[in-house]
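Operator note (shift B, R.M.): manual run for Exodeoxyribonuclease 7 small subunit requested after the automated queue skipped it. Running by hand, logging everything below so the morning shift can see what happened. Input copied straight from the record, untouched. If output looks odd, do not overwrite the archive copy; leave it for review.
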Amino acid sequence: MTSSKVDEALGYEQARDELIDVVRRLEAGGTTLEESLALWERGEELAKVCRRWLEGARARLDAALAEEEEAEDQEAGE
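Run finished. Output pasted below as returned.
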């Protein structure tokens, strides 16, 4: 499984928790330049996963709100 396929299977909470760990490790220092770059790249991938989940949640919320508004408008027109 490639990294992107693994990332697609991650849930929001899993990606967020791993991202928090990556940030902590970067902030703590003590890693080589190569390790820091790898952590940074992983953090970017995880941030994209989180962003996709949040965008999906926002789209679902917007659709539900639009549906509710449409139903209210239909009730008011009756």
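Quick read of the result: The chain has a mean pLDDT of 90. The chain has one domain: 3-77.
Leaving this for review. - R.M.
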